[in-house]
Amino acid sequence: MADNQRNGLVLFSFRKHPKRYYEKLFGRLSERAPGYGLNLYKGALKDMRVYIGSEDFRVQESSNDMDVADFDVVYFELWSKCPQQALATSTYLDLCHVPYLGPNVRRIQPDTKLGELSLLKKAGLPIPETVSSSHKQLRKWFRGSEPVAFPVVAKNISGYGGKINFKAHSREELFQVLDENPEVTFVVQAYIPSDRDYRFLVMDGEVQLVLERQGNDDTHLNNTSRGAQAHLVDPGAFSQKVVDMVLNGAAAVGRREFAGVDLMFDMHTGQPYVLEVNKTPEIEIGSHSEDKMSALLSCLDRLSRKENA
After folding, report:
1. Which of 9, 88, 127, 131 is the most buried (most CB within 10 A)?
2. In terms of Cα–Cα distance, which of 125, 284, 286, 281 is closest to 201?
3. pTM for the whole thing?
4. Residue 76: strand pairing partners
5. 193-237 pLDDT per residue, tens
6. Where are the beta strands (DSSP E) in the chain?
7. Distance, C-alpha 195 to centroid of its chain
8. Alpha-carbon distances of 200 from 107, 112, 237, 242, rounded to whole Å
9. Residue 212 and residue 146 share a domain
10. Are 172 and 86 within one domain?
């Protein structure tokens, strides 16, 4: 038995289980923990408050109002219903050098915007100021000192093509978005003033093609599926720093071989931001499909020649 008492956090997907299974498991574990010098707390991944800013990255366990980095050890008990919250939490723990344990936690793939943004932040890449949590916790958060200044953009963490993606100018508008989409988990981000973004098509570790996408005046979206106009831009028009940012972004989420990296520049400051790293960028369909197919086939041709050389 250790002389000093240490605090441990046991994480489940939700705060409660309909059959009280979480409570049973935690109760058995917490009863024995003091004998090993541990004082255990129970937490819910769904209600984690994730904040990712330009200078800061924090994950707070809301039921105990404690930063997860303040615990001495974390155990991911049953996380499979909230894998992206588990990924964000484990990424933060890695950065804070807090030990953790759990089945396959280190193998979670960044399948949503939340997971991607956490790994992009870990890699030191610039992303828009971002928060994410359950609807209940987002409401509490924004009723207090607003974690992100309005206007904000609320995005479905699993969304694509600009779907379930809203610009909110006030707390009331944000809460309306939450009311109208009760089953959706959101990332809420600072609005970046810009009338266009750039899709960098990365294949085999290189930028093969760049599309500039410019939206309509009546929307903040620059997706071609939402009516934005697109045209090709010479990759050489971008500085090596920007190209490295794109390639590092693809690598950060394990997609350096194939990805569509979306970049936006603040029209006032010129600061570039990585918005997301799309794992399935449209090739055979969508805007400039002929150019994208040519880029893909040229890359496949080069790879086949390398293999047969």
Report:
1. 88
2. 281
3. 0.93
4. 11
5. 999 999 999 999 999 999 999 987 767 876 666 567 899 999 999
6. 6-12, 38-44, 49-52, 57-61, 66-67, 73-78, 100-101, 130-133, 152-156, 165-168, 186-190, 196-203, 206-214, 229-233, 258-265, 272-278
7. 23
8. 27, 19, 12, 11
9. no
10. no
